[in-house]
Amino acid sequence: MGRDTVVPSIDLSGKVAVVTGSGRGLGLAYAQALAAHGASVVVNDIDEAVAEQAVKSITEAGGTAVAEVVPVGTSEAADRLVARAVEEFGRLDILVTNAGILRDKVLWKMSDEDFDAVITTHLKGTFTCARAAAVRMREQGEGGTLILVGSPAGQRGNFGQTNYSAAKAGIAAFARTWSMELGRANITVNAIVPVAATAMTETIPAFAPYIEAMRNGEPLPAFLRKGEGFGTPEDCAALVPFLASEAARGITGQAIGIGGDKVALWSHPQEIRAAYADGGWTPETLADVWHTSVGAEPESVGVPAPKFPEA
Questions:
Q1: In a domain, 226, yes or no
Q2: Mean pLDDT of the chain
């Protein structure tokens, strides 16, 4: 970017946003960033005190926000969130589906309850809230923005996270599908893939000392901020007002990663190698060619381990 380049300011004045799961962590950072750029925000959490504190942090900084305390997942909860936006501010322009929980266990130890709880909050919660928001935005006839929160676990899988990885993979698929369905209504739909120091990542032993040092006022080292794309929730938050702005009006159906000093575009699943057999395949002919053609270079799985410098 040249010295004389003028970067247009992102102004969301007059826009109204709902951010689910925004009492703390990444969700709070998203809500604060939207409010800082002029949007009125409905904060959502299951804890009333946490939600009210989040609202206070926004209003004391000069923003506008109200709280709606409800667990995301049901159609009734989604309708309440949209209705609160309309009752308080007259409209809805932006939805950020951030609400989520974790119930991590390996496959053979994961209960139905563990699976259902995560799928209900992440996947069904995203679906019900997006559906309610899309109905309202289409009625308004002025377009809108759906920002769905994904995860590297949904892009690549992650050990012990059957439920979470499946939900986040589904959310990325939602973004691709809904971008097509809502395009004519001028509603953009994107998935974001944040990586940040949160209560969840602090449980990873390798990250814990760096997060603790950060909370004591020390900056995260460059190998984390750049090499791993790992930073604070506030680092991730910049993507949300950008995608909600007119500057991003042509961006839809994408999965966009952000963290630390890094922003990245994730690829969509696609065929990368093919082979052909006249008349079709048999198990034997597949076995004969697999390792020298289609399966010669299998795809990797899992979120790569951080590359920490040697002590």
A1: no
A2: 94
